[in-house]
Amino acid sequence: MGFSWARVGTWIVAGVIGIVYGVAGTIGQAAMWGPVPLGLVIAVIGVGALMLAVRTLTDDRWAALACGLGVMLATLVFSGRGPGGSIVVPAPAEGQFSTGVVWTIAVPLLAAIIVGWPSRSGRRDTPAPPSA
Predict the structure, then answer these.
(1) Would you say the pTM of this structure is higher than 0.85?
(2) How far, in whole angstroms, is CA 18 from its chain's centroid?
(3) Residues 61, 10: contact at Cβ < 8 Å?
(4) What is the dihedral of CA 10, 16, 20, 26, to 10 degrees?
(5) pLDDT in tens, 8-43
(6) Is the CB of residue 25 less than 8 Å from the CB of residue 71?
(7) I need a surface site. Which of 57, 68, 71, 131 has the fewest CB within 10 A?
(8) In sequence order, what are the residues at sequence separation of 6 or more whose Cβ sits closer than 8 angstroms to the Cβ of residue 57?
(9) Under 8 Å between Cβ of 21 and 73
């Protein structure tokens, strides 16, 4: 694939969509349904599906990477202390399960797997060499 402005536009759109999903996932990952971290499960599945869809539909690793970087950027920005001192992702009490830590690790791991997965378009069915 060569350079084209349409491809750069795809990367920008994928990054912005990643930021939107990252904000939603970072805020929603702390939701619990009894003992089940339902928000974390939905956030990880949603972001994984988004990055996989971007990779599949565009057939471009760089677009999937832009999407993953957008999610990671949003996670980084919203996980810290805000200018007014507010914290969106609070640290859990000692000994409790931290959905924030799992979310912070799961996003780059998903991005690495989806971006690094071998491309199906690179495979070519070549005929077997004639036997001598």
Answers:
(1) no
(2) 7
(3) no
(4) 110
(5) 999 999 999 999 999 999 999 888 888 899 999 999
(6) yes
(7) 131
(8) none
(9) no
